[in-house]
Amino acid sequence: MAGLATAALLARAGRKVVVLEKGNQLGGLAYTHVDQGFVLNYGAHAIYRPHTGLLAEVLKRLGRPRIEAPYPNPRTSYFALDGRWGALGPRPQHLLTTSLFPFASRLRLLPLMAHLRYGNPANAGNSTVSEWLDQHTNDPNLRRFFLAIATLNTYTRPAGALSAQFVLRHLQRSLFVKDYVGYMSGGWSTMYDSFAAALRERGGETSTGVSVGQLVVQDGRVVAALAGDRRYEADVFVVTVPPQDAPALAEPGSPLWLELDRWRGLQDVRALCIDLGFSRRLRTDLTFVYDADYDLYYSLHSEVTPDLAPEGGQLLHAMAYLSPEESTNEYLHKRRQQELEDGLDRHFPGWREATIVRRTLPRAQVAAARSTPDQLGSARVPVRSQTARNLLFAGNARDLPYNLTDISLASALEVAELIERELPTQRRRVPVEAVH
Question: 236 and 212 share a domain?
């Protein structure tokens, strides 16, 4: 989405842009697949602040209509914690009546939430979420709940290792607003189709199935991108591949390769996802369940956005967040899948018999870099290469103070504005290699 958003914004500003997409369809890691009427995304369907946030800003600049993204009902959004089951409700006072915590923990939760809402995230410094919790509560129920909220909002396990400043900033920006999180009508394709339409309306081009093998650098500038026997020349190149893959674009041992190779060791965020299409509406009394005992997430997306499932059916998205070890160790990975399916048995009895569509993504990449204290700031990808001045970067591993999709969209806005300032409109060809 970073590549398509960047390209659409540049085309709108009068630049001639070509998007090179490695995959066989547009969308990159945000692609949408439809199976028997069930709309399946790569990974989760949720988007933060869909109507007032960065997506709305990009669409406004492109002159495109708002994308509908209904909100989950907080009264039917449940958490399971230490054998207890409860919803938090839509208003702060509902914290006093939730069955999720003992009464003493409910009383302690109110000042913790007040500190979360009104405190200055910068005061957390370089501390982790676990260290921040050490300073603000000794209630084990609240610690586990806050860690669950952090994982739910960042897809990261274990959440205690995340940057407290990063998590607090995101929660302040998104948790206490009406336009919190929505499930996009039509799936992610509604968004990237809108970007692609805006691009093509202004003469931009898209090419799928194009895998760039190398960037050619001369005199401190990229002069061409090579893809098989094809050569693409431009004034500016924008790369949006995951940073771990970026070194393959440069000649081994070259200055550009040495620069890009610094990001090879970034730890990414991955999740085990199972999408299930049910022949009938298996449950209608809930929107989602977050099982905090195991860091498992179950969401009946079609209960929020009905067009994601055929009439009479139901779409369930199940996710087990993966630690780095669980992502790479086959035994630990299989154990996580068993935990995810055990949770389906607990929360959605009869799911096996009702399933007519099933898709498993064993290690879906959610973000290219974990937001731990050592992987923020200068450890992230900058806007511009230091060895090739006309090489720019966008994507969710950028050095920007946002989360997940917001980083991709914010980086697209930043790169487009930078090119508009620096590149005269008469020099207008800017290939953008989209995420693959």
Answer: yes
Q: Residues of the chain whose pLDDT is less than 50?
A: 435-436
Q: Which residues of 65-93 are buried (b: 16+ CB within 10 A; e: fewer)?
A: eebebebbeeebbbbbbeeeeebbeeeee
pTM: 0.93
Same domain, 235 and 375: yes
List the domain range (segments joined by +) for residue 153.
90-174
Beta bridge partners of 365: 270
Spatial CA neighbour of 271 closest among 296, 294, 293, 292? 296
Buried-state track 382-391, b at ≥16 Cβ within 10 A, e below 16: eeebebbebb
Biggest CA-to-CA distance, the chain: 68
Contact 400, 410 (CB under 8 A): yes
CATH (domain of 192) = 3.50.50.60
* Closest to 435 in 3D by CA, of 413, 411, 401: 411
What is d(CA 371, CA 389) in angstroms, rounded to the nearest whole number? 27
* E strand or H helix at 300: strand 296-300
Give pLDDT, residue 143. Answer: 94
Tell me, yes or no, whether 366 lies in a domain.
no
Residue 156 sits in the same domain as residue 232: no
| pLDDT of amino acid 200 | 96
173 class by beta-carbon count within 10 Å (0-12 exposed, 13-18 middle, 19+ buried): middle
Please tell me whether residues 153 and 124 are part of one structural domain: yes
